[in-house]
Amino acid sequence: MSDKVRPSKLKFKGEKVKKKRKREDGGEGRSTSKRKLDDKDPETWVLPESVNELRGPTFIVHPSDPSPISVNYNSTTNRLALQSLDKDKAEDGEALNVLERTPTDVSQVWVITRIAGSITINLRTGTGEGKFLSCDTHGLVSADRDARGPQEEWTPVVLPDGMVAFMNVYEKYLGVDEVAGGVLQLRGDSEEVGFAERFWVKIQYKYKKEANEEEKKRKDGQTAPPTINETSTNSIHQAWGAGRSVVSSADKTELKRARKEGRLAEAMLDRRAKLKSDRFC
């Protein structure tokens, strides 16, 4: 089933955002490091540490040489574009480190969405009508689909160095390829993850925090596994080995003890009955 997604307004670092003031606790309170994290601008662009944190507005950069490039969408031509980030400079005029780069235009932003409980994601353009990044069976990558389907699904892999690889439904990887004339384009037919298939991905801090809070709630909500009476459960619901009940070692010990006590009680009753019979003879 396909569904259409409305474009949403995106915000960038530097825009004025109304912040809610939080009342500080006067007691033992939080640690200084915790407060620093909470005070971070929610629009700050940060690197994800896990696949679960990949959500919301996303900035995708490839560390090409001599200049890193960003994965863009041109809403005028409805085509993908790889843009050099050489023009981005720091305040002192020096070129920014690739990890210091942040999007300066909405065309550089993608929106990651996912189905709950699924490891796959969708990458939707942050501008225009919201087109999905897709890859066909030949490895051709485009962004002209209004609805999501199998070809619009990507499985992200966070690599040990913090970079991210994207695998499509055909189990091939997204990569940067150089074609005739030195032009760079995206392809989706790489068998392995090499330099061309590794991307730096940045997300906004508020979404990273949201993912971590959800994970914490999930872990805190876990309860100990219920204790099951294997003897009664197996007898009522299932039996293996031609009707032979399978029970735990503890239950076996308990059953042996019960049988032994039962035999002793039966022997005592037999003895009493015999004594009583002898008395009347």
TrEMBL record:
Extent of Basic residues compositional bias: 7-22
UniProt-listed Gene3D superfamilies: 2.80.10.50
Keywords: Nucleus
Keyword Nucleus belongs to the record: yes
CC terms in the record's Gene Ontology section: catalytic step 2 spliceosome; nucleolus
InterPro entries: Actin-crosslinking (IPR008999), FRG1 (IPR010414)
Record region (Disordered): 1-44, 211-257
Primary subcellular site in the record, as a coarse category: nucleus
CDD domains, sorted: beta-trefoil_FSCN_fungal_FRG1-like (cd23339)
Keyword match Nucleus: yes
SUPFAM superfamilies, A to Z: Actin-crosslinking proteins (SSF50405)
Bias-annotated ranges (Polar residues): 224-237
Family from the record: Belongs to the FRG1 family.
Protein's recorded name: Actin-bundling protein
Compartments it resides in: Nucleus, Nucleolus
Residues making up the signal peptide according to the UniProt record: none
Ranges of Basic and acidic residues composition bias in the record: 211-221
Pfam family, one: FRG1
GO molecular function, one term: actin filament binding
